[in-house]
Amino acid sequence: MNKYLLFFILFLCISCQKIDKDVEMVLTKTEQSLSEFKTVVFKTNRIDKSFTSSDTLYRTAICSIYIEPEDEIGMYFVQNIKSEEDTLYHRIYDGKHFSNTTIYVDGTAKAKWFTRENLEQNNNIQGHFGLNFLCRNIFELDDNFTRFRNKSERDKIKKMEVYDEIYQNTPVYVLTIFFKNQEDSDEYINNAVDKYYIRKSDFLPIAYSFYGEFQGMQEYEFATIDYLEINTLTLKDFIPYNNAEDVDVEAVYEQNKSLFEEDPFRDKVNGKIKKKDSQKVIEVEIMNDKFPFNEFVLNNSDTVKLSELKGKVVLLDFWYRGCLPCIKAIPVLNELQNEFKDDLVVIGINDVDDNEQVNDFLKYKKVDYFSTYKSEINISKSLKFNAFPTMVFLDKNGDVATIKIGFDDENNNRKLIKELIEK
Fold this sequence. Notes:
Blueprint: H1 3-15, H2 21-35, E1 39-49, E2 57-67, E3 75-84, E4 87-93, E5 97-106, E6 108-118, H3 136-139, H4 144-147, H5 151-154, E7 157-167, E8 170-179, E9 190-199, E10 205-214, E11 217-230, H6 249-256, E12 295-297, E13 303-305, E14 313-318, H7 324-339, E15 344-349, H8 355-364, E16 370-371, H9 379-382, E17 390-394, E18 400-405, H10 410-422
Parallel strand pairs: 14-15, 15-16
Antiparallel strand pairs: 1-2, 1-11, 2-3, 3-4, 4-5, 5-6, 7-8, 8-9, 9-10, 10-11, 12-13, 14-17, 17-18
């Protein structure tokens, strides 16, 4: 038999392998259990650590879901999320409108802030951070559990397996999905693993975890799910408020005050959730070709002054780790810095990431120039830069020669730098 034909047959056999029988059983029975309810009310505790953050968030919520396959996001919902020590976010969505009430709590509800959106005019609910708490990857039947049978999705999966475990005194099946790596691309998450903890008694998920790596950074999330009620709600429970006066703040707080009691993750954060540092934004602008900032502290602890770099061309690259175009620009900037090392100084300006994060990332990417890190003043916002990367080119006199927004190919930048050097 022709060796190429043999190889092709072997490839087909491998590609068409059946799902492991234990995985098949768990998928089938979990799909069946999820298909049998129309509404569900549950409490969830979540741990989240994003790629670009060094902090881990510990949050908790009580959510109600009405499954609606025809809706753009597949469900209507009522969310009650506690993401800070004294704040409750109460949100309702019915497919057409979205109302949001912020309740400040100090023993009892004491204040509120209210908005209502018509989604036909402003459909931004899809990207809303609170959707994570709905555990959509569990409750949408056409998402994870069903799609694992789809060949195009299966091609992304390296391996699926199931094993037995006792989770929080409950016998569960742990369904684990290992995804294939795309190590030749900067745009993919690698070493990604999903885990679903499926309760053996009724084949309902009671926990979910994710882990992945991107550009040397790690992201993970873990959610526990306490099922409270199934098929007890009606559509009337998912009608958004029309006005702030319609919200019974005290009643909402009473229904959700358990969120402010001790939660399972509280001991792990020593009592309080770390709040984000605030950065100052000052009113500045580039006038008479003069860049309004002169002194920068770099990630190697040195201080650089633009006034001391006259005689050289300076390229200020405004970037941050979570910006894919910024990441793509790094090898180009490396080449330019090395090619024009006697006449060019590249300085990264990062107003998002901490010093340790910047150091680790620049080392991982083998960057040949230094960068600033998050400081008291947010230079990007002060200059009203809202697209990244933004590159500011200073001529040998220290004046602003041009500003470029977005990732550009090296030839255009090389030509510009040559022109500035030769002036």
